[in-house]
Amino acid sequence: MAALDRIRTDVVGSLLRPARWKEARQRLEAGRISPGEFSAIELDCVREHIALQEAVGLDVVTDGEVSRLNFQDSFGLAVDGYDTGKETLTSHERRVAGGAPLARFDMPDLAAAGTPVVHRRPVVQRLRLNRNVPLEEYRRATALAKRPVKVSLIGPDRIQQRFDHAASKAVYATVDHFLDDVVSIQRQMIEELAGAGCRYVHIDEPGYTAYVDAPSVDAMKKRGEDPMANFARSLKANARLVQGFPGVTFGIHLCRGNQRSMWHREGSYDAIAEQLFNDLPYQRFLLEYDSPRAGGFAPLRFVPKDKVVVLGLVSTKVAPLETVEDLVRRIEEAATYVPLERLAISPQCGFGSDVVGNLVSEDDQRRKLERVVEAARKVWQ
């Protein structure tokens, strides 16, 4: 197998939660089964997720993020210090109820009490690491996997965007002070992951597409923020985050929202591409390219010669299966800007970034993952 920074197939992270996991989670939340009984069911689901990914031939696997109600819980559940509230499977289902598939989802409840980062929460004391959620997930998954296990962490940009600074100034006078603590905590998490043997850490940064999305830019301005100052601050934080971890491959994933087959950002990478690709010291850029909302491949001309672009060409939002011929054609189109040896392919996002999951079946999910591998073999083998 190629070194992890050069593998041809990738997976963003989350998979659909099996129906039996959801049923068990509801029983746990209602007090009808014990935490131990639930953990046994969840472990079986992780085992099945890993077996699926290995069976289809992916170069790297994840635990499917099955323990998270939302992909951002990697930080929200890991730290103390936020003014927070409890969330349940039911509360997440209510959160996306009424949304139309493939329509824009504006998430009107960001200020509601709930898990930090999923919601825009203030802090009541300086943040501190309470439990390393991704480390727990990695240890459980790597004991079951034959292939390398990657883990995902929500990145500093999204954490910054989901921080109520106006209500937190008694604790953090500036956003910079807040981000300093965020980066320090996440570096501790990565150090512990590396110490446990993890060699591929993936940072989720869906917030970077906010800087090319007009409604998101307007929302920042209405909060009294300077969008480009936010962007520059986040780039520096993301760069600091991954410095000094020899032997660990870092990927960064950008997308435009992924809840119940809905989306919440649009706009091509053009306006931020040159600075993004050159200022971030990541080996792999996982980019969403499954819909016209992402624009064309021309911004890839700014990608430095030592970095890999993972093309998210296979949609996790819709059931229809992409053809191998179309995927090969699009990879070849991207190769006019980045050589084939520095390209790879993946689904455009997770299948279940939120516990509710996208409107695809587990069979659709399998066929989509198989198609990723099939296209990769057609192009590179």
Provide an overview of this structure.
- Helices cover 38% and strands 11% of the residues.
- The protein is an alpha/beta fold.
- The strands form two sheets. A six-stranded parallel sheet has the order 3-4-5-6-7-8. It has a two-stranded antiparallel ribbon with strand order 1-2.
- The longest helix has 22 residues, at 35-56.
- The chain is globular, with a radius of gyration of 19 Å.
- The two termini are 12 Å apart.
- The mean pLDDT is 91.
Provide the descriptors you would attach to this structure in a database record.
381 residues, TIM Barrel, six-stranded parallel beta sheet, two-stranded antiparallel ribbon, 12 helices
What is the structure about, briefly put?
This protein has 381 residues and is α/β, with parallel strands linked by helices. Helix content is 38%, strand content 11%.
